[in-house]
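Sat 14:20. Reprocessing the chain from the morning session after the first attempt stalled halfway. Input below, unchanged.
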Amino acid sequence: MSIRKALMRLVVLAALVLLAVPSFADSQVRIVRLSDVEGNVQIDRNIGQGYEKAFLNLPLTRGVKLRAKDAGRAEIEFENGSTLRIIPGTVIEIPELSLRDSGAKVTAVKLQEGTAYLNFNEAKDDEFTLTFGREKIVLTHSVHMRVAMEDTDATLAVFKGDVEVTGPSGTVQLGKKQTATFDLANQDKYTLAKNLDKDPYDAWDKQQEDYHQRYLASSYTNSSPYVYGMSDLNYYGNYSYVQGYGTMWQPYFTGAGWDPFMNGSWVWYPGFGYTWVSSYPWGWTPYRYGSWMYVPNYGWGWQPGGSGLAWNTVPRVMNPPRQFIPLQPPATSAHSTIVVQRGPSVAAAGAANKVVIRDDSAGLGIPRGSIRNLGKVSQQVRQEGSVTTKVHTMPVRMERVPSASPAAQGSSMSGSSTSRTPATGRVRSPRMSSPAPMPRSAPAPHSSTPHTSPK
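Finished this time. Tokens:
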């Protein structure tokens, strides 16, 4: 085993020791991560403000609703690395997101309209329920599937694993590469197809899943229930041993003037108060757990541990430089989102799929997995100050015309069963092609010190 891999394993194990203790054991509250946002995505955080703009790394709590409009797409990442992705014209709700006294996690997701991809990783004693229309799926082991809700029918396609669906027409079992179509206007009677009805967004879903699998270390992927955000740490930065301080993680593209709080937002949550949300594409785990430490001649690095039993609403800071201004939550009762932007980001280079990466950008604006060998590019940027490089993204963005139902509008088995081999023949909404997705840019932060947990 190489020294780098050994160090990375040590830091991961230290993080997992911390994370293995259930957060919010008394309140039974959980958070999951809004891990990818592209285009027009809106969120109702269940705080009485209705729909507002959604952005990367928002903590999601029980009762939230998420919808993707126009060309919008989004991904939710759960603690054990399970993911739920939505495409244009989709609305979902998370009515349950809690923690039992035993430590088992209870999750319920409701697909109200549109299409969702779920890649569920089995976790002992956890409960994950997905409902669409009057159909219900209780997941007990790993499965990868797609669920689509149209006006008159709903379709479930299973890529891997198997599921059991219960509804008005009874129970139906689906295995790998099978599709079930439910007639919503006829007591949800279903038909089965021994193949998959392909969707243009399947390629996007696969691309995102491949990214997570590639950058998650197999040594801990299957052994811990808390791995969300780890694939981003492995892609956007690296671990190193710092004499006198131990093993630390540091993002690429960080010069002498960079600090971890240059880009982000203050977002208010009932019971928690203002919570710091980082704009960096890797900005989940280092801000929710552990602490940031400043090391002379090395800069800022993140270390797991030291954050107690609860996740950090304000990142913990240790050994800050003399000129550092501590990050403090806003002293306001307005509960509005406050954006902080002090650092550079990636800029378009004037040519298709090319960007200019500058020092101190810390990966901001670089879509995950879009640049090969990011560590090598970081070394070039450190030597030259900036680098123009090609961004590898999907060749086209597929767009679905959103449904015109009221849920898509708003402000800021016993039953008859037949087996067939042809495609289901569903009539889909029209799609259009447009240029490849541009790099994301979410809101941004300031500097910090205190560590708080929900009241």
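Residues 1-27+229-343+446-455 form one domain.
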